[in-house]
Structures are given as structure tokens and as C-alpha cells.
């Protein structure tokens, strides 16, 4: 797991700032969400996030370097990898759940026609993925 020295952070350095250095980029937590929901292949993660392929490739590399995501080869020719969450990545699931709850109340209108009535349970998906 990559640690961020507090002395390298601008402003008021704290663990929140350090965490945002690792997972605060726009697509990072959406990548973690997709993996927690069971997406293991690159194309599925791209589809789930709606992000450009190059952005997801960069996020996956950064999250792997930070120890949040693990990459496992599943095919040699051409080389392909499956993605999963490390212990550190699975520890982010409650953070995602808190953001989901906050977003339902404060970020999405209750009358939004695209608002799902029920969201997939992230923690169950993460546990199911862990046991595969």
C-alpha cells in the first residue's frame, strides 16, 4: 500500500488529504464501485463508469500502485487481466456506501426519472467477489 507523507501535501495536511491523493481523482472511486459490484474485466469497468478507456487504464494502474486494486492475469495471448479489490480496496466499500446514501439525499432529486429505486448492495457484491 502506498502511503502519502503528510509533509508533501499542501494546505492543512491530514489523513483526508492523503486519502484523496490516492483515490480522489474523478474516476477512481467509480472504478472501485464497479469492481465492488462484480466487474472484473477492463471493458466491463469502462462500460460501468462511462469513462474513456485511457482514463480507466490510468486509474487502474494508479489504484494498483496504491494497493487498492489487484490485477491477475487470466489469458496469455493476448495478455488480459482480471481486476479485484485488495483488503485496502474492500475497506473503501463503506465509504462508497456512505457516498451513495449521501447522494440519494443531497445530490439527486427524489423526482429524477433516472433515479433507481434500489441500488445494488456494494458490501454484498464485494464479499461475493472476494469468495470467487
From TrEMBL:
Keywords annotated in UniProt: DNA-binding, Transcription, Transcription regulation
Region described as Disordered: spans on this chain: 107-132
One Pfam family from the record: HxlR
Any GO molecular function: DNA binding
Gene3D superfamilies found in the cross-reference section: Winged helix-like DNA-binding domain superfamily/Winged helix DNA-binding domain
Family annotation (InterPro entries): HTH_HxlR (IPR002577), WH-like_DNA-bd_sf (IPR036388), WH_DNA-bd_sf (IPR036390)
SUPFAM superfamilies named among the record's database cross-references: Winged helix' DNA-binding domain
Coiled coil: none
HTH hxlR-type domain mapped to chain residues: 14-111
Transmembrane region(s): none
Signal peptide extent: none
Protein name: DNA-binding transcriptional regulator, HxlR family
Amino acid at each position: 500500500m502506498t502511503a502519502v507523507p503528510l509533509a508533501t501535501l499542501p494546505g492543512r495536511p491530514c489523513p483526508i488529504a492523503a486519502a484523496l491523493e490516492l483515490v480522489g481523482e474523478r474516476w477512481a472511486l467509480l472504478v472501485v464501485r464497479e469492481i465492488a459490484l462484480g466487474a472484473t474485466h477492463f471493458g466491463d469497468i469502462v462500460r460501468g463508469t462511462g469513462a474513456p478507456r485511457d482514463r480507466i487504464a490510468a486509474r487502474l494502474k494508479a489504484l494498483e500502485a496504491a494497493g487498492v486494486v489487484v490485477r491477475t492475469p487470466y489469458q496469455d495471448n493476448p495478455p488480459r487481466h482480471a481486476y479485484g479489490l485488495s483488503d485496502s480496496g474492500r475497506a473503501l466499500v463503506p465509504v462508497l456506501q456512505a457516498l451513495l446514501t449521501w447522494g440519494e439525499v443531497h445530490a439527486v432529486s427524489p423526482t429524477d426519472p433516472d433515479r433507481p429505486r434500489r441500488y445494488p448492495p456494494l458490501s454484498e457484491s464485494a464479499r461475493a467477489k472476494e469468495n470467487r
